[in-house]
Structures are given as C-alpha cells and as structure tokens.
C-alpha cells in the first residue's frame, strides 16, 4: 500500500499503521479514509496529501 504525505506539514499516513487516534484502523488504505478526515498534525484535508 502507498504512503501518503501531507503537502503542508510532511505528516506521513502509512496504511499499515493507520491513524488510531482518529479512529482509522491499521490496514486502512488512504482511499478508504472518510473524506472528512484531516491531518492529525496540521488539520488540512485529504486533498492536501500526495503519494510518496
């Protein structure tokens, strides 16, 4: 699975890890994250992420 990087702050979303603090389970592909999810570090939306 692809790692996605926040274009604003550099946070990396790794599907193998997920984002448990935001309710995103490990193994969740970026494409399956709800559209209203935001970067846990800077708060921007999914549209501000790029594949690494």
Describe this structure in words.
- The protein has strands at residues 4-6, 12-13, 49-51.
- By secondary structure, the protein is mostly beta strands.
- A hairpin with a 5-residue loop joins strand 1 and strand 2 (12-13).
- It is globular.
End-to-end distance:
11 Å
Query: Tally the helices: what do you get?
Result: 0
Tell me the structural class: mainly beta
- Strands, total number: 3
Q: How would you describe the shape?
A: globular
The side-by-side strand order for the widest beta sheet comes to 2-1-3
What is the helix fraction of residues, given as a range? under 10%
Written as H for each helix and E for each strand, in order along the chain, the element string is EEE
Mean pLDDT: 97
What percent of residues are in strands?
15-25%
Low-confidence parts: none
Oligomer designation: single chain
- Rg (C-alpha, Å): 10 Å
Summarize the biggest pleated sheet: 3 strands, antiparallel
Name a few traits of the molecule.
3-stranded antiparallel beta sheet; mainly beta; 52 residues; 0% helix
Protein topology:
Blueprint: E1 4-6, E2 12-13, E3 49-51
Antiparallel strand pairs: 1-2, 1-3
How do you describe this structure in short?
By secondary structure, the protein is an all-beta fold. The protein is 0% helix and 15% strand. The protein is built from no helices and 3 strands.
